[in-house]
Sequence to fold (208 residues):
Amino acid sequence: MEADVSDEGQRGRGRRIRRRSTPATAVRLAELEASHRRKALLRAGATIVLSWVLILGAFYLLPIGHESGLRAFLRLGADIALVGVVFAWQIRRIAVAELPELRAIEALGIVVAVFLVAFSAIYLAMSHQSASTFTQPLDHTRALYLTITIFSTVGFGDITPRTDTARLVVSAQMLLDLVIIGAVVRLLFNAAKSRITPAPTTASAPDL
Fold:
């Protein structure tokens, strides 16, 4: 009797594990009822806002040290790797999402937030190392402002790099901005599209 109970328990746990590992059926946002669609959009918006609050809060609260020229480039490589890890994690979430279109939008918001904060931290640390690195000494808000103006290609010119190291880091951000705007956006939404419409299976050739 006890063996039967334990077997049933193991089978039940196995079914739960399989159920958790099986991706949910993908649904298009347009296929939802109006009330469900509004709730899904509100959840997605709340997720993006909460993610930005947490990421920006960490940027403002965590201590930012000093970065010399060499350490700035090492930090740049580490931050690019961090953005890559976040991007890969978001692609995986899209691959199993019930609403992949909204998940792609959430993923884009999170990746952009991590990207902006990563470069803001580099600029702030470089300014801490030497106040003459930029035309103005940077605090958290100025560093974030500089990163956003570069990302949006506005370029007001009130804060500009004055050293070669700073110019190289800013140039790296400009090039990565193009990657974020072009390749990353396309990959995220292509992942959502392929999740909704998986590739058709090819029929096997008949035996001769």
Residues 29-196 form one domain. Confidence is low (pLDDT under 50) at residues 16-21, 201-208.
